[in-house]
Write a structure and sequence with these properties.
The structure holds two protein chains of two kinds.
Chain A lengths: L8 H9 L8 H43 L3 H8 L6 H9 L3 H11 L7
Helix pairs in contact in A: 4-5
Chain B lengths: L1 H44 L3 E11 L7 E10 L1 E9 L10 E2 L8 E7 L10 E11 L5 E10 L9 E9 L1
Antiparallel strand pairs in B: 1-6, 1-8, 2-5, 2-7, 3-6, 4-5
Classes of the chains: A mainly alpha, B alpha+beta.
C-alpha cells in the first residue's frame, strides 16, 4: 500500500524498484513521491483544462453568432439613430410590432440630445 | 396731613411702575410693527402663481393625420409644464407620448400616432398642455411641428398652432 493515497501502489513499487539495492533515504523517497504526485495531478487536470478551453471557445463562438443574428426588430431598435421620429413608430405599429412602436415613440420624445 | 402724604407716595409708586414698564411697551410696539411689515412685505414679494391650459392644434390640410410630433417651449415668463392631456378627436384621445422629465420644465416634445381607420383630416386638437405660470410677466410660447405623417407614415404638409384655452 502506498504511503500517499493519491499514488497508486504500482507506481510506489516502481519508484522503490528504480533504485534496486540502494538504500534510498526516506526524505528522498518522499520527495520523489511528491514529485510523482504533482505529475499525476498535472496529468489529471490537463484534460479538464482542455475541455474548459474548448467549452469557452464554443460558447464564445455561439455568443458572437447569436449577437449578429438577432431578430431584425431588436437590431432595428438598437441601431436606430438617437433622433427617431414618431413616423418610425407608426411604421413599426403598422407592421404589427406594437412593442417596437412604443419604444421608438418614447425615444422620439426624449429630451436628451435635443439642441 | 398724613393721609395726603400717603396718597402722594402711592402716586409716586404708580409713576415709577409706569416708567419701568415704558421700555417694555415700546419694545412690544416695535416688534409688532416689524412683524406686520414683514408680513406685508412677504405678501407683496410672493409671486402670484396661476395655472393655464393650452390647446395644441394640428391641421393636416385635408390629409389623414396618422402621426404628429411637436416641440413646445415657453420663451418668456416663469412657466412650468404640469400636465399633458389627450386631444379631441377619437384617434388622439389618449395622452400623447412625452418625456416625463419635461414636467416641471418649460420645454416638451409631444408625439402620437394612430392606426385608427378614421383619422382627422381637418384642424383638430391633438393635445392639451397644463402649465403653471409664476409672476406677473406674460408668458410667450413657441411651437414647432417636427413632423406629421399620414396613415402610411409618409410625411405630410401640416400646420401646428396653439390656443390659450384659459387661466384658472
Amino acid at each position: 500500500m502506498s504511503e500517499d493515497p493519491h499514488i497508486p501502489d504500482e507506481l510506489s513499487r516502481a519508484l522503490k524498484g528504480a533504485f534496486p539495492g540502494v538504500d534510498v533515504p526516506e526524505r528522498i523517497d518522499r520527495a520523489v513521491l511528491t514529485g510523482a504526485r504533482a505529475h499525476l495531478l498535472k496529468r489529471r487536470w490537463k484534460p479538464l483544462v482542455g475541455v474548459a478551453a474548448a467549452v469557452a471557445l464554443v460558447g464564445g463562438i455561439a455568443f458572437v453568432t447569436l449577437r449578429t443574428h438577432e431578430s431584425p426588430r431588436q437590431m432595428a431598435i438598437e441601431t436606430a439613430p438617437l433622433r427617431v421620429t414618431i413616423l418610425d413608430a407608426l411604421s413599426a405599429a403598422r407592421r404589427g410590432d406594437a412593442s417596437a412602436a412604443d419604444q421608438i415613440a418614447k425615444r422620439a420624445v426624449t429630451l436628451e440630445g435635443l439642441p | 396731613m398724613n393721609r395726603v402724604k400717603m396718597t402722594t407716595s402711592r402716586d409716586r409708586q404708580g409713576a415709577d411702575e409706569a416708567r419701568r414698564n415704558a421700555p417694555l411697551r415700546s419694545r412690544l410696539v416695535v416688534a409688532l410693527v416689524v412683524l406686520l411689515s414683514s408680513f406685508a412685505y412677504s405678501q407683496t414679494t410672493q409671486p402670484a402663481t396661476r395655472f393655464a391650459t393650452l390647446d395644441i392644434l394640428v391641421d393636416p390640410q385635408g390629409k389623414p393625420l396618422g402621426a404628429y410630433q411637436i416641440e413646445f417651449r415657453a420663451t418668456r415668463g416663469d412657466v412650468k409644464l404640469v400636465g399633458v392631456e389627450g386631444g379631441a378627436s377619437e384617434a388622439y384621445r389618449k395622452a400623447p407620448y412625452y418625456d416625463p422629465k419635461a414636467l416641471q420644465q418649460s420645454r416638451i416634445v409631444i408625439a402620437a400616432y394612430s392606426t385608427d381607420s378614421s383619422l382627422p383630416t381637418t384642424k383638430t386638437r391633438v393635445a392639451r398642455l397644463h402649465v403653471q405660470i409664476r409672476g406677473a410677466e406674460a408668458p410667450e410660447y413657441e411651437l414647432k411641428l417636427v413632423v406629421a405623417g399620414d396613415a402610411d407614415a409618409k410625411p405630410i404638409e401640416a400646420k401646428a398652432s396653439y390656443e390659450r384655452d384659459g387661466e384658472d
